[in-house]
């Protein structure tokens, strides 16, 4: 009569032999006692060629001696299992001499006072090839994107330079002002582009603390001035996405341009202050100057209020709100969620 233990043994043997991963068990002398069907397919040896033998014939020559020492140390540890941490760097050797990368997990158990080691092995040759192919594609894609960004940045600089040249040659004040306004808007995008793509990482977001002071200085620098402009910033440490930074940069360009063109006429003490706060998932941008004060028809472009229309449109893109407050000069407050 077949015993329950014999039934369990046969059942376990069938499970091991039908496993998709190679399973190899060793006794305390590191001789093979189990070599399942997947192991046969992986290494090209029949189980009868491996049972009772060491693993040396399926290991590279340079690691054969190290292998036994690693197993001895593992037996002495308290850990019941060991997983190869160098994915794809553990190597096996097929019967035809071909070396290939393996992912391995080893466990130990005790049966009748003898330590039994069992390794579950997976051939990661194709996975490694795919990873290398993917890395190559990513590098190629990264190179293409960097080349595109480089060209876009150069094109923006060309447009900016042309607008400045045209503004200096314009015969009418209206044309000169319009060209300077357009140059400032391009400059705001150039500053953002430079911050995002100057390093190896092509960032998808940028910290306001890094962006706003540079943007302000760049826009102020477009306008010749006999008196220096004092720039004060109090910027909270918060990052915004490109989608939010682009309209925000143009909005601030409109404010700064308006201040530089209209606010400081006849004034020696000139100051621009920008604050940015973050609370309850809401960003608050406060812009103010100490000029003559805000008039709707004066902001950024022309008497028809194109600049203000643009600001309102860009604030709506941010799903935000804008308001002005009566102060010594001009003060705008913008709020939007992130």
Automatic annotation (TrEMBL):
Listed SMART domains: HATPase_c, PAS
Pfam families tied to this protein: HATPase_c, HisKA_2, PAS_9
Entry keyword annotation includes Nucleus: no
Secretion signal, residue range per the UniProt entry: none
Keywords annotated in UniProt: ATP-binding, Kinase, Nucleotide-binding, Phosphoprotein, Transferase
Catalytic activity: ATP + protein L-histidine = ADP + protein N-phospho-L-histidine
GO molecular function, one term: protein histidine kinase activity
Residue span, Histidine kinase domain: 147-338
Domain of life: Bacteria
Residue ranges of domain PAS in the record: 8-78
Enzyme class: transferase
Enzyme Commission identifier(s): 2.7.13.3
PANTHER family the UniProt entry points to: ETHYLENE RESPONSE SENSOR PROTEIN, TWO-COMPONENT SYSTEM SENSOR PROTEIN
Name of the protein in its database record: histidine kinase
Species in which this protein is naturally found: Leptospira ognonensis
């Amino acid at each position: 009569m077949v015993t329950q233990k014999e039934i369990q043994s046969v059942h376990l043997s069938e499970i091991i032999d039908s496993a998709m991963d190679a399973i190899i068990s060793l006794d305390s002398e590191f001789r093979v006692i189990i070599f399942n069907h997947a192991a046969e397919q992986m290494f090209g040896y029949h189980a009868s060629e491996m049972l009772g033998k060491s693993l040396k014939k399926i290991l590279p020559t340079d690691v054969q001696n190290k292998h036994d020492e690693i197993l001895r140390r593992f037996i002495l540890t308290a850990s019941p299992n060991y997983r190869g941490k160098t994915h794809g760097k553990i190597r096996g050797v097929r019967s035809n001499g071909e070396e290939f990368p393996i992912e391995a997990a080893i466990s130990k158990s005790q049966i009748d006072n003898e330590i039994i080691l069992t390794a579950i092995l997976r051939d990661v040759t194709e996975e490694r090839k795919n990873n290398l192919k993917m890395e190559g594609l990513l590098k190629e894609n990264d190179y293409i994107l960097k080349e595109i960004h480089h060209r876009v940045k150069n094109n923006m600089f060309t447009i900016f330079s042309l607008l400045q040249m045209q503004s200096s040659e314009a015969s009418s004040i209206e044309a000169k002002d319009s060209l300077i306004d357009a140059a400032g808007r391009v400059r705001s995008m150039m500053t953002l582009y430079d911050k995002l793509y100057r390093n190896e990482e092509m960032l998808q977001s940028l910290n306001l603390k890094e962006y706003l002071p540079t943007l302000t200085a760049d826009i102020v620098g477009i306008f010749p001035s006999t008196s220096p402009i004092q720039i004060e910033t109090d910027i909270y440490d918060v990052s915004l996405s490109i989608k939010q930074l682009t309209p925000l940069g143009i909005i601030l360009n409109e404010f700064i341009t308006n201040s530089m063109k209209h606010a400081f006429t006849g004034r020696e003490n000139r100051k621009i202050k920008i604050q940015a706060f973050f609370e309850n998932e809401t960003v608050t941008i406060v812009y103010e100057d100490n000029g003559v004060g805000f008039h709707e028809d004066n902001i950024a472009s022309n008497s028809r209020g194109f600049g203000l229309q643009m600001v309102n449109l860009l604030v709506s893109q941010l799903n935000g709100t804008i308001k002005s407050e009566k102060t010594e000069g001009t003060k705008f407050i913008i709020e939007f969620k992130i």
